[in-house]
Amino acid sequence: MGWPERLGIGLGLAIGLGSLASVTYAQYRDRGEGPAFDLILSDGAFELRDYAPMIVAETTHSGDRRSASGKSFGRLAAYIFAKDRPEGGETIAMTAPVLQEETRDNIWRMRFVMPERYTLETLPAAPDDIALTQVPARRVAAVRFSGNGSARDLARMAASLSEWIASRGLKPKGDVEYAFYDAPMVPGPLRRNEALIEVVAE
To answer: Could you give the CA distance from residue 188 to residue 141 in angstroms, rounded to a whole number?
Structure first.
């Protein structure tokens, strides 16, 4: 086979994979409910949002962010898909985004946002290593970015968001939390990620 034929096959494969990735991204992005919020301010990649109260299932693991992510995601997925409930029972829809925060050095908390139709009383009971918690209404500054969520990128976006908060005269109220909207197979340039910092609502 000559190079023109090989080039044609390569281009066709690249186009096909690109189309598949785009479809996968759209399906994952649009799957399930996201937490409700009112947009207060938009400034390029930065936004100021008022979030309604939401219920989350959360768990914590230690280690670097990626290894902790795998452990936490597996545990939370087992809960919502009824894999570790002796009685089985209903599954819970997967929502976007997945939230993650470093609560102490190398201690990472991951949260799945529960669909709005649930209350703490109507959710299936969770195992001991998963907490069901209601996050109160809050005002949050956010910055959106793409990429694979490397430690360097996360630190850079957290610093950028802190600078924007200061430039707007806002007062931070919490530590940075990261929101990841897409499945791991989605190429980095197509991914939607966010850094979030709660601020004082005035």
So the answer is: 23
DSSP assignment letter at 194: E
Q: Which of 45-54, 126-135, 181-190 has the lowest mean pLDDT?
A: 181-190
Query: According to the model, what pLDDT value does residue 70 have?
Result: 93
Q: Is 141 exposed, middle or buried (0-12, 13-18, 19+ CB in 10 A)?
A: buried
Domains (range + CATH), the chain: 3-50+137-199 (no CATH), 54-135 (3.20.80.10)
Q: Which pTM does this prediction carry?
A: 0.81
CA dist 51 → 20, 36, 122, 125, 152 (Å): 33, 6, 22, 25, 28
Backbone angles phi, psi at 108, to 5 degrees: -115, 130
What's the pLDDT tens digit per position in 75-131?
999 999 999 876 768 899 999 999 999 999 999 999 999 999 999 999 999 999 999
Any idea which residue has 């969520």 for tokens? 149
Check: CB of residue 126 under 8 Å from CB of residue 57. yes
